[in-house]
Task: inverse folding
């Protein structure tokens, strides 16, 4: 019954999540394009057959399509929603009409329009996290050790229950979450801990070990010491934040998420990280269903957090220097700025085909990972 309930939550939650994240991304392209004087022919949510549409006073066709798995903004003079120019149409346009096309804009304007999509995703995440922190605050656990797992790196380093972590490599630690943040990104690195035990400060050297944690969205490898926070009543406190402080903490959180994601991507390239951790639409949909279930019980906060996390991920993914993605366009613009002229049409077309193959291969591989994990769960993890 719980599986059926998850499925019932999964589809609408995934559609809502994707609609919000994609709309904000495409609206970033749209609004900056408008500011730069570009004519927007279409703003589409979804692909395929049109379910609803209207044309605004600027001539933009706003449409909702039958397949809610993305969206696009089509600027005047583009052949499609990927901002590939329709060269034949551009050549036959009157000069006044060509002036409002995307291709006719100066380099800085095209770069700004392209960058605006991922940037809007980061702004969405910051806005959501700021709202959550401002309204709810958060529970802060003191950096006091409650449990030391016997087979963990922390036990080997000499930690004991009751120890209070004062600093790590000279960085002050005021909360258990700060210690987790440092440790999770420091696997196989020796860290110098200053701890307070029985009123005395002392040093302990510890090397966090890699641990693989599985969740519905995929597998995550982080550094861990095998230490758990104290749950004693005096070792936690509720903190409320003003709007400015909430904004600052939200920016820090988005930076931390981005740093971890970029670290993982770098690990994939160097071979330190396993590609099995990649998750695709099925895994994200599963996680969306579970988060929506939790939100139905405790309030909307978990789902807003999940939207923020996915929005950052979508923003980072689109900034990858892969042709077809926003980052690929920005790469071409960087080359254009250095050379003083754009790459020729044939080179760009070849690069876009490579980019399409790379993105397609990533989607196929991540979907395979999703199906493999789903099969493992259905078979009880048997090998």
Result:
């Amino acid at each position: 019954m719980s599986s059926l309930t998850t499925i019932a939550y999964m589809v609408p939650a995934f559609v809502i999540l994707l609609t919000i994240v994609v709309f904000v991304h495409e609206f970033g392209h749209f609004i900056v394009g408008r500011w730069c004087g570009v004519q927007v022919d279409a703003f589409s949510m979804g692909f395929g057959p049109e379910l609803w549409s209207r044309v605004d006073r600027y001539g933009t066709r706003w449409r909702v399509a039958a397949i809610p798995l993305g969206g696009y903004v089509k600027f005047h003079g583009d052949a499609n929603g990927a901002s590939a120019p329709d060269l034949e149409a551009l050549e036959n346009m009157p000069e006044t009409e060509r002036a409002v096309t995307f291709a006719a804009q100066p380099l800085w304007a095209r770069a700004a329009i392209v960058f605006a999509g991922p940037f809007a995703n980061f702004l969405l995440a910051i806005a959501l996290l700021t709202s959550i922190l401002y309204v709810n605050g958060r529970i802060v656990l003191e950096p006091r050790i409650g449990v030391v797992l016997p087979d963990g790196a922390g036990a080997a380093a000499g930690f004991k229950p009751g120890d209070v972590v004062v600093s790590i490599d000279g960085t002050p630690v005021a909360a258990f979450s700060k210690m987790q943040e440092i440790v999770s990104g420091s696997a196989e690195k020796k860290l110098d801990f200053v701890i307070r035990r029985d009123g005395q400060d002392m040093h302990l050297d510890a090397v966090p070990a890699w641990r693989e944690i599985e969740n519905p969205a995929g597998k995550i490898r982080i550094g861990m010491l095998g230490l758990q926070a104290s749950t004693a009543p005096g070792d936690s406190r509720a903190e409320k934040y003003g709007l400015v402080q909430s904004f600052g903490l939200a920016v820090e959180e988005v930076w931390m998420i981005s740093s971890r994601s970029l670290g993982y991507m770098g690990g994939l390239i160097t071979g330190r990280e396993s590609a099995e951790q990649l998750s695709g639409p099925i895994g994200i949909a599963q996680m969306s269903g579970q988060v929506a279930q939790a939100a139905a019980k405790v309030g909307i906060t978990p789902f807003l957090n999940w939207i923020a996390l996915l929005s950052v991920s979508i923003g980072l993914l689109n900034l990858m220097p892969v042709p077809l993605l926003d980052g690929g366009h920005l790469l071409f613009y960087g080359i254009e700025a250095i050379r003083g002229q754009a790459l020729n049409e044939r080179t760009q077309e070849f690069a876009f085909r490579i980019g399409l193959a790379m993105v397609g291969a990533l989607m196929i591989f991540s979907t395979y990972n999703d199906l493999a994990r789903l099969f493992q769960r259905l078979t009880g993890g048997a090998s």
